[in-house]
Design a protein that fits this description.
By secondary structure, the chain is α/β, with parallel strands linked by helices. It has one domain: Metallo-beta-lactamase, Chain A (4-Layer Sandwich). It is 22% helix and 25% strand. It is built from eight helices and 14 strands. The radius of gyration is 17 Å and the shape is globular. Zinc ion (ZN) binds next to loops.
Length: 275
C-alpha cells in the first residue's frame, strides 16, 4: 500500500492553505520524506504522521534544488546534529546530479553544524531511469522532467514513480512543464500528484496550467489526479473545470494535509491546518 500525504500543496509563496513543497510518502510501511521545502519538518510533526519526529526520517528524496523544495534539508541536518536525537540509523539522501555540490556549499557556510551527530549520512546523486528497492518489495523510480534549474542540478530535475509490492503506483511530477518523461511515467498510474502552478492565462515556463494538466491526463489516463504546487492565484481558483475540458477522470485540488491511499480509498482532508 502507498500512503501519500501532501504536507505542502503550494509553491514558493505560502498561503494559509497552501504552503511550500513537502510530502510524506509511505510505501509498504517504509516512510519517505520528499521535497522538504520551508516548514516541512513543522508540518510533518503537526500532521501526526511521525510521532517520533526527525528520528523517524530515514530516507529523503529531492526532485530538484530550488529552495521551496529543499530548504528544510538545512533544518533537518541541523536538528540531527543535536545530541538530543535518538536514532542511530543511517540517513539516506537521494537527489539529482548536483546534490553533493549543494551540500558542499552548505558545509562552507555551516561547517560541522550540518553533520548528523549519531547517524551516517549516505548521499546518492540520481539520474533519470534509476531505481531504489525498498524493504518489502516496493520501488522508487526516477524520470526526467522539464524544469529550469540553472544552478547545481541544471538539466537534471527529476520526478518520482512509486510502486508497492503488489504493483500499485503513484507518481509525483516534481516541478515541470509538459514533457514526455512525465507523460510516460504517469500512464495508467493509480495516483498522479501533479503540479498545477497557475491558472490558464497565467502560466510560466517550466510549470503547468489546468489545460496542460488536462492534455497530459487525456493521454496518460491516471485513475486519480491530485493537484499540487499551487501558487496563490491557482490556490484561489477552481482549477478542475479547465482540466475537465480534456479529461473526465477524478481530480482533487489538494490542500496542505490532503491524504491519499493507493489502492484508492477516500482520504481525509486538511487535518492539521484547521485553526
Ligand atoms: Zn522549482
Amino acid at each position: 500500500m502507498i500512503r501519500f500525504r501532501i504536507l505542502g500543496a503550494g509553491g514558493a509563496i505560502p498561503t494559509p492553505t497552501h504552503t511550500p513543497a513537502a510530502y510524506w510518502v509511505t510505501v509498504d510501511g517504509t516512510p519517505i520524506l520528499m521535497d522538504p521545502g520551508p516548514g516541512a519538518l513543522v508540518r510533518l510533526v503537526h500532521s501526526g504522521d511521525a510521532p517520533g519526529g526527525v528520528d523517524e526520517i530515514g530516507t529523503v528524496l529531492l526532485t530538484h534544488l530550488h529552495p521551496d523544495h529543499c530548504c528544510d534539508l538545512v533544518a533537518l541536518l541541523f536538528a540531527l546534529h543535536s545530541p538530543l536525537t535518538d536514532s542511530h540509523e543511517p540517513l539516506h539522501l537521494f537527489g539529482p546530479k548536483g546534490l553533493q555540490a549543494y551540500l558542499d556549499q552548505l558545509a562552507g557556510i555551516y561547517g560541522r553544524w550540518l553533520e548528523p551527530r549519531h547517524r551516517e549520512l549516505n548521499i546518492t546523486e540520481w539520474a533519470a531511469g534509476q531505481q531504489l528497492d525498498l524493504p518489502g518489495g516496493g520501488t522508487v523510480q526516477t524520470f526526467a522532467v522539464d524544469h529550469p534549474q540553472d544552478r547545481f542540478s541544471a538539466g537534471n530535475c527529476l520526478g518520482y514513480r512509486f510502486a508497492d509490492s503488489e504493483g500499485h503506483t503513484a507518481v509525483f511530477s516534481g516541478d515541470t512543464g509538459p514533457c514526455s518523461g512525465l507523460e510516460k511515467a504517469a500512464r495508467d498510474v493509480d495516483l498522479l500528484v501533479v503540479e498545477c502552478s497557475a491558472p490558464d492565462g497565467m502560466g510560466v515556463p517550466g510549470h503547468m496550467t489546468p489545460t496542460e494538466v488536462g492534455l497530459l491526463c487525456a493521454k496518460a489516463q491516471p485513475k486519480l489526479v491530485a493537484l499540487t504546487h499551487q501558487y496563490p492565484a491557482a490556490a484561489a481558483t477552481d482549477l478542475r473545470p479547465g482540466i475537465a475540458l480534456h479529461f473526465d477522470g477524478p481530480v482533487v485540488q489538494a490542500q496542505d494535509g490532503s491524504l491519499f491511499f493507493v489502492p484508492l480509498k477516500s482520504g481525509e482532508e486538511n487535518p492539521w491546518s484547521a485553526p
